[in-house]
Amino acid sequence: MAELLDVQTRDGVAVVTLRNGKVNALSTALVAEIHGAADALTADPPGAVVVTGGERIFAAGADISEFGGPDEAATITATIHRALDAVAAIPRFTIAAVSGYALGGGCELALACDYRIAGPRAVFGQPEILLGIIPGGGGTQRLARLVGPSRAKELCLGGRQVPADEALTIGLADEVVDGDPLERALELARSLAAGAVLAQAAAKRAIDDGLSMDLAAGLAHERELFVEVFGTEDSQVGIRSFLEHGPGKAEFTGR
Ligand code: COA
């Protein structure tokens, strides 16, 4: 049973909260629980997902006390990649609500979500270089895709920490709020959960899969998913509702 994280579902939104001691280090045990939670949310998806951590520390990264030599490193990076790929594959909109430090694997977990909402004291960074190592939880890849290669290199090679406002400017955070980022994340998640979630899943797949394809292949993939989504009950509900009542009034069933 999960002990290092907590999953609560309300109003169609699953909230995953990391609870691994003071700094939420992504120990092997916590990473296994994140992987298990992501698989469960994929097998039986809610309407949307929010991932959050501690108020002062979202997550301080991989558990450095578990590091050893290359053999341990191979296991750690493979395990965290599998877990964060499972998070990225959750077929619903996923939001990281970050109120404090999201460093190393903590930043990488936030990067594996679809959207990042930061509080005023949020701090992001890939400080692995300060330990003489590099990010091993997807940071070099997902960060570069989000903020561009030159900024990703400056952050991964320098290990600098990025405050919330700068994170917003460079596109690492999508919103910064004055108050509790969890409240804003819940508000956004509830609004998406009430929408056409199967179409959202198709749009997410088209965008994510397309990022690793050339344009022609990405467009072909979009065509397939566009056709597929017309097989959902929601597409018929949405189209009929538009024709009869105008835009934005459809009540979707999630089927
Ligand atoms: N793995 C294991 N232990 C960690 C840790 C991590 N990633 N991050 C912090 N800790 C431990 C510290 O060693 C310390 O242990 P102690 O109480 O036994 O001395 C404790 O957590 C508190 O850390 P401390 O640095 O004293 O807290 P702080 O509030 O001053 O700072 C952080 C918090 C998160 C900013 C800071 O701990 C930090 O920068 N952590 C490392 C981040 C990192 O490099 N991540 C990438 C890992 S590859």
Give a verbal description of the structure.
The protein has 255 residues and is of the alpha/beta class. It is 49% helix and 16% strand. The model has no long low-confidence stretch (mean pLDDT 97). The protein is globular and about 60 Å long. The protein has two domains: 189 residues, 2-enoyl-CoA Hydratase, Chain A, domain 1 (Alpha-Beta Complex); 49 residues, Lyase 2-enoyl-coa Hydratase, Chain  A, domain 2 (Orthogonal Bundle). The chain has a six-stranded mixed sheet, sandwiched between helices. Strands 4-6-8-9 form a four-stranded mixed sheet. The chain contains ten helices and ten strands. Bound molecules: coenzyme A (COA). Coenzyme A binds next to strand 6.
Short description:
With 255 residues, this protein is an alpha/beta fold. 49% of the residues lie in helices and 16% in strands.
What is the element string, with H for helices and E for strands?
EEHEEHEEHEEHHEHEHHHH
Low confidence ranges: none
Which word captures the global form? globular
Based on CA atoms alone, the radius of gyration comes out at: 19 Å
- Specify the CATH class of the largest domain: Alpha Beta
Structural class: alpha/beta
Q: How many strand segments?
A: 10
Write down the domain tally.
2
Q: Please give the share of residues in helix.
A: 40-55%
Strand content: 15-25%
Widest sheet: strand order?
1-2-3-5-7-10
Give the overall average pLDDT: 97
The CATH superfamily name of the largest domain is 2-enoyl-CoA Hydratase, Chain A, domain 1
Characterize the main sheet. 6 strands, mixed
**Quaternary state of the chains:** single chain
- List each distinct ligand once: coenzyme A
